[in-house]
Design goal:
With 123 residues, this protein is mainly β. 0% of the residues lie in helices and 51% in strands. The protein is built from no helices and 11 strands. Strands 2, 4, 5, 6, 9, 10 and 11 form a 7-stranded mixed beta sheet that branches. β4 and β5 form a beta hairpin. It starts with a strand and ends with a strand.
Length: 123
């Protein structure tokens, strides 16, 4: 069982930055590909970014490319999402997810999910 706990969400003005973190309670964190997703009210969860087991490959949704950076620290069992140049349309609940031995961009590939953290960007 893997528990994921997100933190670092909050409110920021458009053009600002936030970093959200996700701490995993598992001994074999490096066995999991990690991803970030977001969800708007009444909408399905959507892919934002993913990182492979070793942290050497990253993948982004078009909406995140050039503005967001996913990274991980396997020694700290933590994955990060640095969000720059934030826009009001980035307002959503952000979820981290873990996929055993896989790196994926689809919701169904992930085995464990955090509880989510709210990010609000005001214009």
């Amino acid at each position: 069982q893997v528990q994921l706990v997100e933190s670092g969400g909050g409110s920021v003005q458009a053009g600002g930055s936030l970093r959200v973190s996700c701490a995993a309670s598992v001994r074999t964190f490096s066995s999991y590909g990690m991803g970030w997703f977001r969800q708007y009210p009444g909408k399905e969860r959507e892919f934002v970014a993913a990182i492979n087991l070793s942290g050497t490959k990253t993948y982004y949704a078009d909406s995140a490319k050039g503005r967001f950076t996913i990274s991980r620290d396997n020694a700290k069992n933590t994955v990060y999402l640095q969000m720059n140049s934030l826009k009001p349309e980035d307002t959503a609940v952000y979820y981290c997810a873990a996929s055993l031995y896989r790196t994926a961009t689809t919701i169904g590939a992930y085995d464990y999910w955090g509880q989510g953290t709210q990010v609000t960007v005001s214009s």
